[in-house]
Amino acid sequence: MNQKSLKAGSWLKHMLAAFLIFGMAFTGFAQRNTIRGTVVDEEGNPVVGAFVTVQGVSGGTSTDVDGRYQIDAPAGSTLVFSFIGFRTQQVPASNAANIVLVQDRTSLDESVVVAYGVQKKRRNATSSVLSRTSPQRRSSPVLATR
């Protein structure tokens, strides 16, 4: 073989490798979808600060003051919607435009809110604890309204 044919073969291999690398990169980008929607409660009020994540992937986003979110997710993935006091929902990304979160009334009875965090059991609290029964919670004034 002569020198010219070796250079042509080497050049061809490099071009083929470059096309394969760029082709795989664009294929990966093509499979990601931007999903937009809103998260509301059972009464239709926006849920501000609800967490929206892609199942099995770290990171995510949260809803804005109108309950809207936007997240990039791979095709065929599942979105997880969660917020304190509501049941966590897992929804296929293709059906995740508008989500209604349902209140989880049992989870609020199990938490103790303290100035430095939330503890699950009262016996673990290292400071004073104020008890409120369910009727007292229902009659408490609303601090913020829409």
Q: Can you walk me through this structure?
A:
The chain contains three helices and nine strands, in the order H-E-E-E-E-E-E-E-H-E-E-H. The protein has 146 residues and is α+β, with helices and mostly antiparallel strands. The strands form three sheets. Strands 3-2-5-6 form a four-stranded antiparallel beta sheet, with no helix packed on it. The N and C termini lie far apart (80 Å).
Low-confidence sequence ranges: none
Describe the main β-sheet briefly.
4 strands, antiparallel
Q: What is the helical fraction, as a range of percent?
A: 25-40%
Mean pLDDT: 75
Question: In angstroms, what separates the terminal alpha carbons?
Answer: 80 Å
Content-based structural category: alpha+beta
| Helix-strand topology string | HEEEEEEEHEEH
Shape: elongated
The whole-angstrom Rg is: 26 Å
Strand content: 25-35%
Strands ordered across the widest β-sheet = 3-2-5-6
Number of helical runs? 3
